[in-house]
């Protein structure tokens, strides 16, 4: 009886701490601004989270870097890029692209815009703070704050960018660059889905015609410096629920992928973008392409700034069904997943939160 009471008291205390943190609407940055030297208990992750850190063995692994400059050069160069995209998507589930067509000044301004939003006056920023995830624009700290085992050391600005919002719906410090950058990413998305279609030996427009590039949401992340990075994470391990993610990260570093049961660093590369396969792309390719588990570790340097763009139609209500592409299945390779809508998949993924077993298992035949 005593143990049960203690457990209940502990749960109640934690819930109150979480609520008190959320009520500040100042996020993790607010804690750092207040001069916190010891991270609050709600951010402390269990020790097992820090296992499988990359050792010397993992220096043998190198995240593929694909130069898109040769796309229009000649057929041989084009095919070489397609082959690299296939190999990376099947093996790692992630690759970096350079010479992708988005000007460096646009990339830099996007990162500056994210910083401007998070580093503006807290009272102004609070106007966007919400846990109403039906809103097109939402600033919050920790999407799964009240359900996760431990909170992550980061704050987020979430925006629906396709279908495009009215400009005035976006925060002023990053409004213009968000609109501009998203247009560039949508254009790059068309190129990437063409390459992925060809990598699957399908018609170049196959994934486009399946509306994989129709919706775009953006998550601008701000990871303040952490006084005890060995006790918490910037982002808990997870896979992305959409079709494809395009990530712009600054030079601070911290992104890691899980490869052959070891955490491998994805080093920041000036002018590059990180592209990773999402759960829905793994589902429709019948496990050909791998949705990669990844996380962000905390650091004392900070702040780390990034902007992730997710290709998914989760905010565009549709009854369109997705299942393994018929050209990719056969008697020897039968479908591994049942049909689902993007909305059903996204709702289930949201209910599961970050970490834990793959959301794809729920949809396996």
From TrEMBL:
Keywords: Iron, Metal-binding, Oxidoreductase, Vitamin C
GO molecular function: dioxygenase activity; L-ascorbic acid binding; metal ion binding; oxidoreductase activity, acting on paired donors, with incorporation or reduction of molecular oxygen
Alphabetical list of InterPro entries matching this protein: DIOX_N, IPNS-like_FE2OG_OXY, IPNS-like_sf, Oxoglu/Fe-dep_dioxygenase_dom
Coiled coil regions in record: none
Family label: Belongs to the iron/ascorbate-dependent oxidoreductase family.
PANTHER family: 1-AMINOCYCLOPROPANE-1-CARBOXYLATE OXIDASE HOMOLOG 1, OXIDOREDUCTASE, 2OG-FE II OXYGENASE FAMILY PROTEIN
Protein name (record): Fe2OG dioxygenase domain-containing protein
């Amino acid at each position: 009886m005593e143990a049960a009471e203690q457990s209940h008291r502990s749960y109640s205390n934690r819930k109150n701490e979480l609520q008190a943190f959320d009520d500040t609407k100042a996020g993790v940055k607010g804690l750092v601004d207040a001069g916190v030297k010891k991270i609050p208990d709600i951010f402390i992750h269990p020790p097992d989270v820090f296992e499988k850190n990359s050792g010397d063995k993992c220096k043998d692994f190198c995240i593929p870097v694909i130069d898109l400059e040769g796309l229009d050069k000649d057929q041989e160069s084009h095919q070489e890029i397609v082959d690299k995209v296939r190999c990376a998507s099947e093996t790692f589930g992630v690759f970096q692209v350079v010479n992708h067509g988005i000007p460096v000044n646009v990339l830099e301004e996007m990162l500056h815009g994210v910083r401007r939003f998070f580093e503006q006056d807290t009272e102004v920023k609070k106007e966007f703070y919400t846990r109403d995830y039906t809103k097109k624009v939402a600033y919050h700290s920790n999407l799964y704050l009240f359900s996760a085992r431990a909170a992550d050391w980061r704050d987020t600005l979430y925006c629906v960018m396709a279908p495009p919002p009215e400009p005035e719906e976006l925060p002023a410090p990053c409004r213009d660059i968000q609109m501009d950058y998203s247009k560039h990413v949508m254009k790059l998305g068309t190129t990437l889905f063409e390459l992925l279609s060809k990598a699957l030996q399908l018609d170049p427009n196959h994934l486009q015609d399946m509306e994989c590039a129709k919706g775009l949401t953006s998550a601008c992340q701000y990871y303040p410096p952490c006084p005890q990075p060995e006790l918490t994470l910037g982002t808990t391990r997870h896979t992305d629920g959409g079709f494809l993610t395009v990530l712009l990260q600054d030079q601070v570093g911290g992104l890691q992928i899980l490869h052959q049961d070891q955490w491998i660093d994805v080093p920041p590369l000036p002018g590059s973008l990180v592209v990773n396969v999402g759960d829905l792309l793994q589902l429709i390719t019948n496990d050909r392409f791998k949705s990669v588990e990844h996380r962000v570790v905390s650091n004392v340097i900070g702040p780390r700034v990034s902007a992730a763009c997710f290709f998914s139609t989760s905010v565009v209500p549709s009854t369109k069904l997705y299942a393994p592409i018929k050209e990719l299945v056969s008697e020897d390779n039968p479908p591994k997943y049942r049909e689902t809508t993007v909305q059903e998949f996204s709702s289930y993924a949201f209910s599961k939160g970050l970490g834990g077993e793959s959301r794809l298992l729920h949809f396996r035949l």
